[in-house]
Structures are given as structure tokens and as C-alpha cells.
């Protein structure tokens, strides 16, 4: 809320922030980023500036709510993420959770804590990134809180969306006979991070490879695209069962579906798509690209299951919508867990481990 | 979300947290705090455990959304707040923003970041406090995120409520001829904080006065009561215009209404209620109790304006409901701002300043 931004900055703020008049500060962060007309068209009656925001929801719909937090040195460092990307990705990660329910994101609240000595331009860049992502998906930022912290930055984004009542896609809905799909290539974000960390640059400097394929990996890490259209298409189809977003790597997400649904999942190695740039990078650093895919995180593609007989039809619908759908495995009832059907024909268990932050 | 709690704790967590199995940890924090039956009765279809929560809203209602963040050493220290109180107050502050719109709080999402070396029992106590407050007002905690931080604790609570469409009470709605009211005594929280800070106890120790009147001040600081019933009564009456919660002191909140509504507000010194325990404490520390009231914060009473002719009737309704309503001033059109009509008869401007955190 505006009140909070004023109050907390004004009194919690130190030298660097105090030169900014409180209203000037709010204006810089939020003004003109989403016009009143756009906000109204998107259902906002009262946005930033009162104790709470007031907004409309579509009738016959349920609320879908999530929040996602990123902390400095844990989820990002200045050598792995540019400030604008930090904002973009914080919003994208929360929006992705809404996509993973087959729902439509509508409103967001943003809470940022940062040290008193922080450079206001950094905060402005983060807000620019937040709005860039929000605007791309017509998510209205209706409130938030900006506070000082003793050390380090924390960004927490809550996104509120809606889904037709009873139609949310839960991770517990996988059924025997389903196929397992993903909506895009995985592992690129983790490879981009791997590249940036290997540069060992001083804090604040930014790694450039000069190679377009590496830049695409870095882009995947800093600017992931939440798969909202794919989620909505899957939800409206009526044939999708379980759905999850890949925030912690394919292994971890497949395990979550398997455990929540009480089923087994077999992933077929040869069917898992591998981006060319990931393949090239993995060769360069002498790693198995599958490691990035299974145990890397933050790609924010969707993984789910659907009735096998509808899979090809759905793939065509995805193609027609300019989206991708890869069938990478199937659900079995043998036991609860995840296995990999290797190219050699061997079937090996996949460990239930996920993304390891710094 | 459960996934996040697992993922982040498991991989971001250090020695102290790692002894806890991931599921055990989630269970400790959230299990049995709000039963499935209670959640369902309160509109939750899918709570903690999927990418996002799914819940119902009342038809014909608008969403009301807010978020409030507290950071360690800025909004609380171990000598000013017990862990359970930190959780209670974090929830109360966000719920109070919903009350200040005349709305009903329904769902909450909690984001906590804490250092890897944090004592898990501290986090559990904070969660207990969060649930204690949430349960008291039937707010369902449907999600959140638990992450590590490099230093210090940050708690961000988002609350989602609802209000009959078009009926939210905005701070911009004060009108000429309105009276100004508050729903309870102010300044006690700031006095309680003042007492605790004066003890100069080592970190982790807790001040006890042995005097019940001081304990009431400490209670006001650690366990504020959001005024939901009062807000709903004001909203349903149809005669209340502007409404705000007193989080930053009476002066700051009155200024917010005055500026948002483009009016002047005169507060009458003799009509501002002063709690006996505040009066006694102020005498003891040789301070003016009005300083705590005007410039202290975090009482979470409501301040608002309503049509003068309905004020007495509303006071009787409040009394019948076991609530308080003090008429402390009036709206004028002379200029935008806030003045104090002193006991002496002098009218002096009130500074537009608010609560000063440590």
C-alpha cells in the first residue's frame, strides 16, 4: 500500500533514500506503469493508495492464490541476475504457480525489503522488471509493502488469479494410463546459471559470452516465461489431469505429481527434449545435459499428465496456438515414484532431489 | 506452498534445520492448525500443498487485498517482541488493513525468510502466533513460502478478503460536515514499546514490570486486535464515509484521510480518549500522553468519518455490540490538513509525521 511505502521508507530509510520525497519515490516506483484506464479495464476499482486494494473477480470463478519469495545471495546474486531481471523473475515465478493450476493470473502484491544503504536506482530497476512481467500478462500490481532490512534484499510476490469453479488442475490428479507431458525444453535456466557462476566475476559485473547460444541460456535464467496460455489451454480442454510447474527440476516435479497422485511415473530418456544450446553448453563443460534437466530448476515450463487418447489432438491444438507439447513419459501403477527409461532400455530410479540454490 | 517450504528449506537450510525431515517440518508448522473440515467450511477447496491454493468467494463481492511486512531489527527485536507475538502481530497488521476497508478477511499467505542458523523452534513459535491470530478471525492460511536469508528475519503476510461490491470504505471519502471517530484508545502500543526499549535488556531477555498496567501496554504492543467487527459494522451501516486503520499514529492517519479526501480535519484534544495505563505511564516517564497517541503507532484501531447526524445512533449500535466509538473531531473545508483544538481553546496545526521505527 502507498501508506506503507511512504511510512516505511520515510522513517526506516537512511541517507541514500532520504533525498527522495516520499511521494516522488512512490511515483517513481509505480506511477504510469499501469494507467488508471488499464487498471479499470483489468478489474481494479481501487489500486495502490489505500489500506487495501479493491477489485473484481469473474462470477462463477474460484480464487487461486500463491506467493513466491526470492532472497539475495540465496536465490540471486548480483553476478547472476541484473536488477531488472530480479523483478521480472520474481513476478514470473509467482505467475507460473497460477499457470500451473490452469488458472488466469489477475492481481499481484509485492513486498520488498532492502538495506537502508541500498541504491534507490536498484529498487527502481527491480520495480521496472516487476511491471514489465506483470504488463506482459496483464497482471495488475495492486499493492505491496516496501520496508528496510538490516541486510540483504528480499522480494515476495503474491499473485491472485481465478479459475472456473471446480476446474483447477491439481498435482494429485494423475491417473493410470495417462501420458506425461512438458510444455517446453528444460535445463536451460540451470545451464545459464552454471555459466554465470563459472565466470567468477567481481560482484556487480556481468558475464558476457559473446555467443548467442550462451546468451539464450542466460536469458532463460533471468527472464523465464510463465506458461499461462499453455495452462489455460490444458484447463479448458477438459482432458488434462495433473499439472505442475517446473521450478525445481524435472525430477522433483515428477516426484511431486507421483507422490500426490499415488502413482508411478516413467520418463523416457529419448523423448525428453534437449535444447540445442543446452546440448552445446553441456558438451563444453563436460556435463550430462540430463543433469541440468532433471536437477536444475527455474525453467517454469509445465509438466502434467493427460488421458493418452487425447495427446495427439492436444499436441495439434498446442501447435496451432504457437505452443509446444512434448510427450515424455507415462503413468504406471507399479509403485509410487519416478523412473527413467534409458536409451539403452534399462529402467533406473530417478532420485527425489531438486534444485540446489547457491 | 508446501512445495516451496520443502524445496527451500531442504536445499537452502543449514545445520540446524537439516535435522528435520522435510515433511516433518511442514507438519510441525502447519498441520492440525486448521483442520480440513474447518478449511472447507471457510471456503478452501485446496490449501497448502499444491502450486497455489484454490478457494471460494461470496458472489456479489469484490476482492480486497493487502500485504504487510515486518523485518527484524526494524519492526521488531527480540527484546520488544516474543516470537509468538511476532507471528500474531504480522497477521494482525495485515488483517487490520482489510478491517480498514470495512471488509471481511478470508485467506492469508505467509512468506518468512530467516537465516540458515535460525533456531527451528523460533520459526515454530512464529507460526503458532500466526495461526493463533488467523484462527481468532477465521482467516485460513492457504499458502506461503519459507526461504533462507543471509541475515535477519522477514515476515510478509498477504491477506485476501471480500466486501459487498461497491461498499468498500475508502480513505478518500471524508466529507464536509462529517464527524471524525476512533474505535478505541490509542498510544498504548507505543508506550509499551517505549517501556521495553528503556529496560535495555540483553537480546532474548524479556522485560517484566510486575505492574498490571504496564503489562497491558506491552500486550497492546505485542498483541494488537484488528477491528474487524467495527469495520463491518461501519460498512453495513451505510453512513460511514472514510476509514483508515491507525498503524502509524493518529496524526499520520488523520493526515492521510485529509489529503486523500481534500478536506481539513480538526481533532478536539479533550475528546481524544486516553487509557488510564497510558496516562499513568506517561506521568512516570514525564512525557505528554498525546505524543504517544499522535505519533506512536501500531494500535490498529480504526479512524474514520461519518455523517454527523448518525453519530449518536452509531455509538449506541457500537455499545450494543460490545465495541467502542469515540467522536474526536470533525471535518472542515477551511484547508487541507489536520489541526488540534487544544483544551485551552487554541487551534494548532498537527505535524504530518508518523511512527518512527527503531
UniProtKB/TrEMBL annotation, chains A, B:
Entry's EC annotation: 2.7.4.16
InterPro entries: PurM-like_C_dom (IPR010918), PurM-like_C_sf (IPR036676), PurM-like_N (IPR016188), PurM-like_N_sf (IPR036921), ThiL-like (IPR006283)
Keyword entries, A-Z: ATP-binding, Kinase, Magnesium, Metal-binding, Nucleotide-binding, Thiamine biosynthesis, Transferase
Binding positions for ATP per the UniProt entry: 127, 144-145, 171, 247
Record field: catalytic activity: thiamine phosphate + ATP = thiamine diphosphate + ADP
Gene Ontology MF term list: ATP binding; magnesium ion binding; thiamine-phosphate kinase activity
Protein name stated in the entry: Thiamine-monophosphate kinase
Primary gene name: thiL
Residues noted as binding Mg(2+) 2 in the record, renumbered to the chain: 68, 97
NCBIfam families associated with the record: thiL (TIGR01379)
Organism listed in the record: Paenibacillus rigui
Chain residues that bind Mg(2+) 5: 248
Gene3D superfamilies named among the record's database cross-references: PurM-like C-terminal domain, PurM-like, N-terminal domain
Amino acid at each position: 500500500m502507498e501508506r506503507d511505502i511512504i511510512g516505511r521508507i520515510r522513517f526506516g530509510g537512511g541517507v541514500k533514500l532520504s533525498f527522495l520525497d516520499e511521494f516522488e519515490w512512490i511515483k517513481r516506483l509505480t506511477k504510469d506503469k499501469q494507467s488508471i484506464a488499464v487498471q479499470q479495464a483489468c478489474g481494479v476499482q481501487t489500486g495502490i493508495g489505500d489500506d487495501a486494494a479493491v477489485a473484481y473477480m469473474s462470477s462463477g470463478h474460484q480464487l487461486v492464490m500463491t506467493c513466491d519469495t526470492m532472497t539475495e545471495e540465496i536465490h540471486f546474486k548480483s553476478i547472476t541476475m541484473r536488477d531488472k531481471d530480479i523483478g521480472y523473475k520474481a513476478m514470473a515465478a509467482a505467475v507460473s504457480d497460477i499457470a500451473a493450476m490452469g488458472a488466469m493470473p489477475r492481481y499481484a502484491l509485492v513486498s520488498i525489503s532492502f538495506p537502508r544503504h541500498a541504491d534507490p536506482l536498484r529498487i527502481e530497476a527491480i520495480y521496472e522488471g516487476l511491471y514489465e512481467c506483470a504488463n506482459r500478462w496483464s497482471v495488475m500490481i495492486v499493492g505491496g509493502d516496501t520496508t528496510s532490512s538490516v541486510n540483504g534484499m528480499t522480494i515476495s510476490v503474491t499473485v491472485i488469479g481465478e479459475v472456473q469453479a471446480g476446474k483447477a488442475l491439481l498435482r494429485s490428479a494423475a491417473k493410470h494410463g495417462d501420458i506425461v507431458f512438458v510444455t517446453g525444453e528444460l535445463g536451460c535456466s540451470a545451464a545459464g546459471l552454471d555459466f554465470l557462476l563459472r565466470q567468477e566475476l567481481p560482484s556487480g559485473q556481468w558475464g558476457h559470452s559473446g555467443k548467442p547460444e550462451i546468451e539464450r541460456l542466460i536469458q532463460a535464467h533471468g527472464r523465464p516465461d510463465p506458461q499461462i496460455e499453455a495452462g489455460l489451454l490444458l484447463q479448458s480442454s477438459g482432458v488434462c489431469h495433473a499439472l505442475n510447474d517446473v521450478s525445481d527440476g524435472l525430477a522433483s516435479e515428477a516426484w511431486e505429481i507421483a507422490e500426490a497422485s499415488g502413482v508411478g511415473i516413467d520418463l523416457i530418456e529419448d523423448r525428453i527434449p534437449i535444447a540445442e544450446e543446452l546440448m552445446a553448453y553441456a558438451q563444453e563443460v563436460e556435463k550430462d545435459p540430463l543433469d541440468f534437466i532433471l536437477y536444475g530448476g527455474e525453467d517454469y515450463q509445465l509438466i502434467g499428465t493427460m488421458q493418452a487418447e487425447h495427446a495427439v489432438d492436444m499436441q495439434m491444438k498446442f501447435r496451432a496456438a504457437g505452443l509446444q507439447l512434448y510427450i515424455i513419459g507415462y503413468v504406471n501403477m507399479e509403485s509410487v515414484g519416478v523412473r527413467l527409461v534409458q536409451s539403452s532400455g534399462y529402467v533406473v530410479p530417478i532420485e527425489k532431489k531438486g534444485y540446489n540454490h547457491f
